[in-house]
Design brief:
The complex is a heterodimer of chains A (118) and B (111). Chain A is mainly beta. Chain A contains no helices and eleven strands. Chain A is 0% helix and 53% strand. In chain B, the strands form two sheets. In chain B, strands 1, 3, 4, 7, 8 and 9 form a six-stranded mixed β-sheet that branches. Classes of the chains: A mainly beta (118), B mainly beta (111).
Chain lengths: 118, 111
């Protein structure tokens, strides 16, 4: 059974960089899957952030591309997210998930709330 | 890149069938059979319920079905149960921008 677990600081100062890691178990991060990040501001809908393949290829949401970096660590079977120059609008629950060749996202991690403080 | 349009809320009585719509454009829903649906209970992570318009993952009840006509995809829940009360999101591949665009979300209420 594939499981994903997010980890990282729950509070980030405005103008700083948000950094999260997703540990994958039950599947190799070098498999033929894409590994995604999705976020959800409190009380709002889902927003896809970006994804990475084990080769290092990435796709990003155009609205976030200038501030987002997704990387992969095959030795630790995990991938990471960095969002720079954060503002209050970046306050959200951040989910990591596995993507199936643009047809679906499954499964998802439990999510982690990141609050941007002033 | 705009979010796909869903009704804010849909409700039904136990045992009834309800349908949640998801309207996009020819750049996403209309030209690709790559629509998926997710159920999200309060405080929980989303769960995949339907993928590629009408396919159910293993373990998902056959009370859930999907379809598409033109630029609009639909999720139908038959035999509505209390556990179906949740938020539902559609998602589609979108040409030219990012691979995934989500819908605005629909709150399903079981009366």
């Amino acid at each position: 059974q594939v499981q994903l677990q997010e980890s990282g600081p729950g509070v980030v100062k405005a103008s700083g960089t948000l950094s999260l890691t997703c540990a994958v178990s039950g599947d190799s991060i070098s498999s033929t899957m894409w590994w995604s990040w999705v976020r959800q501001p409190p009380g709002k809908g889902l927003e896809w952030i970006g994804e990475i393949y084990h080769s290092g290829s990435t796709n990003y949401n155009p609205s976030l591309r200038s501030r987002v970096t997704i990387s992969i660590d095959k030795s630790k079977n995990q991938f990471s997210l960095k969002v720079s120059s954060v503002t209050a609008a970046d306050t959200a629950v951040y989910y990591c998930a596995r993507g199936f060749a643009i047809s679906a996202i499954d499964p998802w991690g439990q999510g982690t709330l990141v609050t941007v403080s002033s | 890149q705009s979010a796909l349009t869903q009704p804010a809320s849909v409700s039904g009585s136990p045992g009834q069938a309800i349908t949640v719509s998801c309207t996009g454009t020819s750049n996403d829903v209309g030209n690709y059979n790559l629509v998926s649906w997710y159920r999200q209970h309060p405080g929980k992570a989303p769960k995949l319920m339907i993928y590629e318009v009408n396919k159910r993952p293993s373990g998902v009840s056959n009370r859930f079905s999907g379809s598409k006509s033109g630029n609009t995809a639909s999720l139908t829940i038959s035999g509505l149960q209390a556990e179906d009360e949740a938020d539902y999101y559609c998602c589609s591949f979108a040409r030219g921008t990012s691979p995934y665009v989500f819908g605005t979300g629909t709150m399903v209420t079981v009366l």
